[in-house]
Amino acid sequence: RPTRMLRLRALPVRFAAVARQAMSSRIAPAPTVVLDAAEQPPVATVIWMHGLGDEGASFVDMFDFLGQRVPNLRVVLPNAPQQPVTANGGFVMPAWYDIRSLDDRNDSVEKWEAGVDAEGIAESVARIQQLAVEESERASLPIFFGGFSQGGAMALEAGLRLPSDVVSGVISFSGY
User: Fold this and answer.
1) Per residue in 79-136, pLDDT tens?
2) pTM of the model
3) Cβ atoms 98, 86 nearer than 8 A
4) What is the sign, positive or negative, of the torsion defined by CA atoms of 149, 53, 121, 59?
5) Hey, CA dihedral for 143, 149, 151, 154, is it positive or negative?
6) CA atoms in the 13 A half-sphere facing the CB of 149
7) Is 104 helix (H, G, I), strand (E, B) or coil?
8) Residue-wise DSSP of 51-67
């Protein structure tokens, strides 16, 4: 089965400029989506991170459904910055950090560490933790970090580095 690879020159003109800009830096993320408890004050806040190539708004339906069972949640759905993802041929997409290789069978710690985007992870962790600080200043509610796939990895990385008086729990769906 042949593999198709998108190249920058194959992109429509309006997307090519965005792709070129992202090749040199991360593009600011889309605005954060916030779902507030409808009828009563919230009892907890969930900060939920989407997976690679997705956006926070994709999880609105999930939290609307969950809101039928737990109606008093405040949900914060941040968006990752747009950036080229090496493992996807450099294609620009929402990503919390670059995935440089899909090969997890590296034969040494040095090779594994060379493939990790430590700077991108640190930037995203700082941004997510800042959201938690802002939420804790806004209201004294339990805060939970959660996410799916790459967002689940970010929830674990950011949530487990904060004291338990800031983050009450961490939820990861298909995370790593």
Assistant:
1) 999 999 998 999 999 999 999 887 765 566 676 667 789 999 999 999 999 999 999 8
2) 0.79
3) yes
4) negative
5) positive
6) 14
7) coil
8) -TT--GGGGHHHHHHHH
